[in-house]
Amino acid sequence: MTTAEKGPGAGTAETVDTEAGPARITWFPATGTTKAARARPVLALGHGAGGGIEARDLRALAAVLPAHGVTVALVEQPWRVAGKRLAPAPKTLDTGWRGLWPALTAAGLPVVAGGRSAGARVACRTAAELGAHAVLALSFPLHPPGKPEKSRADELLGSGVPTLVVQGGHDPFGRPAEFPPGEYRLAEVPHADHGFAVPKKAGPSQDEAMEILTGAVTGWLSALV
Fold first, then answer.
1. 8 Å CB contact between 25 and 13
2. Rounded to whole angstroms, how far apart are CA atoms 4 and 88?
3. Are 162 and 224 a contacting pair, CB within 8 Å?
4. Per the database entry, which stretches of residues form a coiled coil (predicted)?
5. What is the Cα gyration radius of the chain?
6. What is the pLDDT of residues 141-195, one digit of tens each?
């Protein structure tokens, strides 16, 4: 069962019942009108374990991609919709994501599964079984900070579909040079941390950092059509 209402700011919010509880999708429809634009996939983006869809990278993509013919769906997991502060176990996150999938595919377009941090892990773990067209992993948490021995590379390498990782150059959860070789693409946002924040006196400005991120994603999605 789904219900729809106007969400805050741009976008239309749709509540979807899942086995993990009610989740929410905020839709940012494509504005492109060409045949090529209409054929582009929906990009579904989940949030991290420590925040919601207000994250700067998710909002930047929702603002930029519709003009390139890509519909963006920002997904809020049931725990976040319920107002809880702590994310549940990965298994429960996967259950919530699976429950949203029919709503994400309802338009009949291919869906690129994605998200930031914990949301990227969910997308990687479930991509093959759900039939995702590709995966976009933003700030993939390759390992806990300071614990490179606890690698999550198997989740990334096991996505089974074309995958783009966009990683901050100073991300404590895994700098670009730490990522293992594999069949995925990696784009770096110089000097950025796990939330893609950049120091004021180091390289690109915050706006420029978001332009690097959105440019990398836009180019990659265009090549998927």
1. yes
2. 25
3. yes
4. none
5. 16
6. 999 999 999 999 999 999 999 999 999 999 999 999 999 999 999 999 999 999 9
Instruction: List, in sequence order, the alpha helices (H) in 47-188.
Output: 56-64, 78-81, 90-104, 118-130, 153-157
Contacts of 108 (CB under 8 A, 6+ apart): none
**CA distance linking residue 40 with residue 221, whole number of Å:** 8
Question: Could you tell me whether strands 42-46 and 72-76 are parallel, antiparallel, or unpaired per DSSP bridges?
Answer: parallel
Residues 6 or more apart whose CB falls under 8 angstroms from that of 202 comprise 191
Dig out the tokens for 24 from the structure.
């929410």
Half-sphere exposure of 64 (CA within 13 A, CB side): 18
- List pLDDT tens digits, range 61-90: 999 999 999 999 999 999 999 999 999 999
Handedness of CA 35, 39, 40, 45 (dihedral sign): positive
Q: At what angle do helices 56-64 and 206-224 cross, to 10 degrees?
A: 60
